[in-house]
Design goal:
3 helices; about 100 residues; alpha+beta
């Protein structure tokens, strides 16, 4: 049986921020791979939540997270540590969605 992963303390705040932008959020942090799957306007993104208030050594990816990031063949996961990171990420997702509409994708 897989060991239950702990969530970073700021994960509920991060999830709430994405949802306020109208994003779909699937919480996957109970796995040993990735914390969130975000969807906005037809664009998906994997997100790893780290607590930016902790020391750099406490924000490092675990061995399981490193292995997942290294082996993932899709878009590389985004590391998010704050509401500001969410704001920037959502702006990028919106831009990608708008670009996809203009190219007919």
């Amino acid at each position: 049986m897989a060991r239950r992963q702990r969530s970073d303390d700021n994960q509920p705040m991060i999830v709430d921020r994405y949802r306020k932008y109208g994003c779909s959020v699937l919480v996957l942090s109970q796995t040993e791979s990735i914390d969130l799957l975000i969807g906005l306007r037809g664009v998906d993104s994997l997100v790893e939540v780290k607590d930016g208030s902790k020391s750099p050594s406490r924000r490092r990816l675990t061995k399981h997270e490193q292995d997942f990031h290294a082996g993932w063949r899709g878009r590389k996961p985004r590391i998010v540590m704050s509401n500001d990171d969410v704001d920037r990420h959502v702006a990028e997702l919106r831009g990608e969605a708008d670009l996809g509409k203009s190219t007919g994708n």
